[in-house]
């Protein structure tokens, strides 16, 4: 509910503003320790990224309520946004976007960690689980860049707005595609913020969609084996439908004005 989201936002904002906040039966304040504020910014940013790789990966709609709170906090407390990006880029290098190359002397296990895989006791997580987590983080990022906290003053620009999404898309299309990963990330990104990018960039956006259909999808196909075609097929269908309709559908779970009255 919108009212619940406001409660969450106010509590986080009060904590970061140095006001005492009640949690688990006790009052806490960042002023109680010289590094209190820095610690809270760090843990809060880390938690937002965890929401991306956890909650959003399983419930795509949850990207929007989480993102709108983070967007508002980022506007008032830029440090949280900076640390959030650092956590996000480390956990999901594709959010830069960047495909890290393996350097000489780097063990396979360490390299897999750099690529974003979870490695426990030399066991690497399964590909499906890895893709799900990356998908959740990209969806959260794509929601953040288009949302503003509705009760802010709206005087300044969005601290990390749609221009960053436009840049992400352009940089992504300049990278050599990877099997599995590239098709999934492009689809996630376009499903969540394609509508907002279309409204903002118009003709330029549609030129990019044509480029994806004519040039980039064939390049993804060239590196994709027959067993990995699922996500690529969904991306192809999505791009084709959008180009035919000359419209990008609104993402599922988008927060409507009526949501804030709940």
From TrEMBL:
It comes from the Eukaryota. GO terms for cellular component: cytoplasm; nuclear pore cytoplasmic filaments. Required for the export of mRNAs containing poly(A) tails from the nucleus into the cytoplasm. May be involved in the terminal step of the mRNA transport through the nuclear pore complex (NPC). One of its GO terms (molecular function) is inositol hexakisphosphate binding. PANTHER family: GLE-1-RELATED (PTHR12960), MRNA EXPORT FACTOR GLE1 (PTHR12960:SF0). InterPro entries: GLE1, GLE1-like_sf. It is found in: Cytoplasm; Nucleus, Nuclear pore complex. The keyword Nucleus applies. One of its GO terms (biological process) is poly(A)+ mRNA export from nucleus. Keywords: Coiled coil, Cytoplasm, mRNA transport, Nuclear pore complex, Nucleus, Protein transport, Translocation, Transport. This is mRNA export factor GLE1. The keyword Coiled coil applies. Belongs to the GLE1 family. The gene is Gle1. It comes from Chaetops frenatus. Pfam families: GLE1.
């Amino acid at each position: 509910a919108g009212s619940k989201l406001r409660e969450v936002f106010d509590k986080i904002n009060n904590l970061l503003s140095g006001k005492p906040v009640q949690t688990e039966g006790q009052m806490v304040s960042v002023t109680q320790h010289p590094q209190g504020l820095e610690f809270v910014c760090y843990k809060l940013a880390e938690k937002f990224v965890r929401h991306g790789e956890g909650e959003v990966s399983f419930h795509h709609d949850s990207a929007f309520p989480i993102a709108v709170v983070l967007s508002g906090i980022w506007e008032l407390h830029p440090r949280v946004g900076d640390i959030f990006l650092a956590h996000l880029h480390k956990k999901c290098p594709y959010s830069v976007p960047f495909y890290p190359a393996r350097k000489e002397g780097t063990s396979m296990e360490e390299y897999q960690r750099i690529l974003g895989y979870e490695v426990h006791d030399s066991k690497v997580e399964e590909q499906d689980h890895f893709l799900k987590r990356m998908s959740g983080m990209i969806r959260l990022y794509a929601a953040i860049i288009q949302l503003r906290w509705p009760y802010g003053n709206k005087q300044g620009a969005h601290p990390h707005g749609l221009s960053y999404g436009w840049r992400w898309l352009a940089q992504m299309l300049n990278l050599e595609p990877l099997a599995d990963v590239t098709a999934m990330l492009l689809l996630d990104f376009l499903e969540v913020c394609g509508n907002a990018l279309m409204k903002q960039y118009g003709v330029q956006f549609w030129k990019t969609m044509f480029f994806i259909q004519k040039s980039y999808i064939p390049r993804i196909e060239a590196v994709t084996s027959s067993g990995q075609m699922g996500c690529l097929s969904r991306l192809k269908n999505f791009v084709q439908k959008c180009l035919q309709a000359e419209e990008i559908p609104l993402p599922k779970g988008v927060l409507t004005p009526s949501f804030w009255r709940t």
